[in-house]
């Protein structure tokens, strides 16, 4: 009766014993394998894991014969910048071949920051003082410094120098001593450009001298520095290059000022574009979190240099405890910059909304494997819609790296930038400031019209002003004339009101007197207008003789008084005639 159950139990026990014996046999077989084989297998698995984790592309490059990846260009079909400039750039139409032993975006980015192979040279320092009391360090490297082979402290650039000038805006916590900035400055100066690196406030060894700090959307420093350089060297074509956060600042500045910028052309390298998307991206994966932490340490070091001001304006305890860029922005940037929240700061500082407003030839270079600035934030459609922008994207390159050559001594984007601005400089597509065109037209008009003008000061004095200077000074004269005309009209209206008040006291003949006075007023103004035109014509023909100028001033300034007296006299005369006629009828 119970035998089937016992048979089943026996079968299960025997099965367990056989399976256990099988595992024992497998274990004995594994023990027979040499330990070295296990080490090799572990290393192979680890290498495969790291190859994918660090995004290596060595084998892809190897099997493609190290031909590199082509440069993808995004532009408007009718873009004059592409057809007239970029189409002539061989580097942008070539292929980027990464250094074989740096065939990873993370290796490239790390090597740039820890080594970088920067060229050896020295800058010439100039301190620029902003209107709010802030200090900006401008570091110069001129083409003559490179050509002479030695740095000359007393070498200065002439105001009439026509050598193209390039303004460089560094990235977050970077300055003129950063490896990639030195690569860029040296490469441009070698090819005949004058380079000035506009360091952010508090960087480059300069202290913070005001309560204003830079941030990812602070464009005022770039604006005042570029305007200063444009006025200081008006004959030198001015170009601008921004890197990383500096590229975001540059694009935002170009979009804010549109046609008014004095920049002939610009280049944006590895811009974050949308700071909200970048904030979400940099805390997504383990590797990105490492970059986030590294950048936060750099920001904390920057804050440590200026601890007295940060302690007063921000949350110093929160800054020291920050573990991410978002934490630092919450405890420092938002408080100093008066932003309500971190997301508000990111939205207001993002450059993407300004892309469509850029009116300057702009080349944008980004790597699709950038570990800091994600490809998800690239404004493809906006760049394609703007005829002034050409977007160049490369499959590999890392963040601001793009090393090339066996030794990794060159940066691809430096060569591409130098070629672009060189071709742009030799073309007819350089941007000209809109006000410059207006000033040129105004100078032509002012050379035709050189007549004198009457200037009435607040103390009642009268002076003759001529339009001997063109441009802004001439515009100021014209602006002043508007206020002078307003003062003259107000004075005439007051005289008319006083005359009307006197004529209203005339009794029963007030209405008729008012009508006569208004008719006479119209005739007087007609005579005044005709006389002014005749005198203007006469004086423009003989403006060299001061006697005509004095006569002109005397007549113009005395007409209101004579006109008022004439109106009063005529009103009284008409009133007597009307009173006599009324008494005769009675």
TrEMBL record:
Superkingdom classification of source: Eukaryota
UniProt keyword annotations, A-Z: Membrane, Transmembrane, Transmembrane helix
GO aspect biological process, one term: lipid metabolic process
InterPro entries in the record: AB_hydrolase_4_sf, AB_hydrolase_fold, Hydrolase_4
Transmembrane portions of the chain: 29-54, 547-569
Any one GO MF annotation of this record: short-chain carboxylesterase activity
Domain Serine aminopeptidase S33: 164-378
Family: Belongs to the AB hydrolase superfamily. AB hydrolase 4 family.
Name of protein: Embryogenesis-associated protein EMB8 isoform X1
């Amino acid at each position: 009766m119970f035998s089937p159950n016992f048979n089943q139990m026996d079968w299960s026990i025997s099965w367990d014993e056989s399976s256990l014996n099988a595992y024992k046999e497998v274990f004995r077989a594994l023990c027979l394998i040499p330990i070295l084989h296990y080490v090799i297998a572990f290393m192979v698995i680890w290498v495969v894991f790291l190859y994918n984790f660090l995004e290596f592309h060595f084998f892809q490059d190897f099997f493609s014969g190290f031909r590199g990846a082509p440069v993808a260009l995004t532009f408007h079909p009718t873009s004059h910048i592409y057809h007239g400039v970029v189409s002539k750039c061989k580097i942008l139409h070539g292929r980027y071949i990464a250094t074989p032993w740096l065939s990873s975006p993370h290796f490239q980015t790390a090597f740039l920051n820890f080594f970088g192979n920067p060229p050896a040279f020295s800058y010439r320092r100039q301190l620029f003082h902003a209107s709010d009391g802030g200090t900006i360090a401008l570091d110069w490297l001129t083409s003559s410094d490179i050509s002479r082979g030695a740095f000359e402290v007393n070498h200065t650039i002439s105001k009439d120098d026509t050598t193209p000038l390039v303004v460089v805006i560094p990235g977050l916590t970077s300055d003129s001593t950063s490896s990639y900035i030195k690569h860029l400055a040296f490469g441009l100066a070698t090819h005949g450009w004058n380079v000035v690196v506009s360091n952010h406030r508090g960087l480059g060894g300069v202290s913070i001298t005001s309560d204003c700090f830079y941030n990812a959307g602070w464009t005022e420093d770039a604006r005042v520095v570029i305007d200063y350089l444009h006025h200081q060297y008006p004959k030198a074509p001015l170009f601008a290059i921004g890197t990383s956060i500096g590229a975001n600042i540059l694009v935002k500045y170009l979009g804010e000022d549109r046609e008014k910028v004095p920049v002939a052309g610009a280049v944006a390298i590895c811009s974050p574009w949308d700071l909200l998307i970048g904030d979400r991206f940099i805390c997504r994966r383990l590797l990105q979190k490492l970059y986030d932490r590294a950048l936060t340490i750099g920001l904390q070091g920057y804050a440590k240099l200026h601890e007295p001001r940060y302690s007063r304006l921000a949350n110093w305890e929160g800054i020291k405890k920050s573990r991410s860029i978002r934490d630092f922005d919450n405890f420092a940037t938002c408080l100093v910059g008066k932003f309500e929240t971190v997301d508000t700061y990111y939205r207001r500082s993002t450059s993407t909304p300004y892309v469509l407003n850029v009116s300057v030839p702009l080349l944008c270079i980004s790597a699709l494997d950038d570990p800091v600035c994600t490809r998800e934030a690239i404004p493809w459609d906006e760049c394609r819609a703007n005829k002034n922008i050409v977007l160049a994207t490369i499959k590999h390159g890392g963040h601001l790296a793009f090393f090339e050559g066996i030794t990794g001594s060159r940066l691809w984007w430096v060569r591409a930038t130098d070629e672009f601005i060189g071709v742009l400089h030799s073309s007819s597509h350089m941007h000209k400031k809109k006000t410059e065109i207006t000033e040129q037209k105004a100078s032509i008009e002012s050379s035709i019209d050189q007549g004198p003008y009457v200037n009435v000061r607040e103390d009642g004095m009268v002076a003759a002003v001529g339009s001997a200077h063109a441009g802004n000074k001439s515009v100021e004269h014209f602006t002043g004339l508007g206020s002078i005309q307003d003062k003259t009209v107000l004075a005439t209206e007051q005289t008319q009101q006083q005359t009307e008040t006197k004529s209203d006291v005339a009794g029963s003949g007030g209405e008729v007197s008012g009508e006569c006075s208004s008719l006479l007023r119209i005739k007087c103004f007609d005579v005044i207008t005709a006389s002014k035109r005749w005198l203007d014509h006469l004086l423009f023909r003989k403006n060299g003789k001061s006697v005509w100028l004095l006569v002109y001033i005397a007549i113009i300034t005395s007409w209101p008084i004579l006109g008022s007296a004439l109106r009063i006299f005529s009103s009284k005369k008409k009133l007597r005639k009307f009173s006599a006629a009324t008494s005769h009828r009675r």
